[in-house]
Design goal:
single chain, mainly alpha, 65 residues
């Protein structure tokens, strides 16, 4: 089975922390405390990284001959 370990470097190239935060913290949530921001990042980050790993696996598979 693939995943982060299979394509770790490719997964890292897909990671964009700024875009992640910009998409998770929306204007209607502001003002927001640092604790709330940290909580939201913790809650959603695992799922986001899994999605990046899946995308990396797919990209790697498509580039194979």
């Amino acid at each position: 089975m693939g995943g982060l370990a299979a394509n770790e470097e490719l997964t890292r190239t897909l990671w964009d922390a700024e875009r992640y935060v910009d998409n998770e913290i929306t204007a209607d949530m502001l003002p927001i405390s640092r604790d709330e921001v940290a909580y939201l990042i913790d809650v959603f980050l695992v799922h986001h990284v899994v999605q990046l790993a899946v995308a990396a696996d797919k990209e790697a598979a498509e580039s194979m001959p």
